[in-house]
Amino acid sequence: MTLLDMMYNSEGKNIKVFFKDGTVKELYCEEYVQAEDEWDEPMLFYGGNGAILKSQIEKIEILD
C-alpha cells in the first residue's frame, strides 16, 4: 500500500506515525485532507489543531 493510501485509510483511526526525522508518535487521526492543487500537499489532522504533512512522514502503521 502506498503512503497516500495509508494516509487515506488512517482517518478515524489510532495510528503510529514514523517521521523522516526519526521521531515516532501514536495519535488519533481525525481527518485526511487531500491536496487541492499542485502547490498543496496531503495532510493528516490530529488533536484538534495538529497537522502532519505528507513530506514529513516516512511510514504509517494503523493500530486499530
Q: How is this structure best summarized?
A:
By secondary structure, the chain is mainly β. The chain has one helix at 3-10; strands at residues 14-19, 24-33, 43-46, 50-53, 57-62. The protein has a single domain, classed as SH3 type barrels (Roll), CATH 2.30.30.100.
User: How large is the radius of gyration?
Assistant: 11 Å
Number of strands: 5
Q: For the residues shown, what is the average pLDDT?
A: 96
Could you name the ranges where pLDDT drops below 50 across 5 or more consecutive residues? none
Q: Strand order across the biggest sheet?
A: 4-3-2-1-5
The best one-word shape is globular
Percent helix range = 10-25%
Strand coverage percent: over 45%
Number of helices: 1
Quaternary organisation of the protein chains: single chain
Reported for the largest beta sheet, the result is: 5 strands, antiparallel
Total discrete domains? 1
CATH fold assignment: SH3 type barrels
End-to-end CA span: 17 Å
- Helix/sheet category: mainly beta
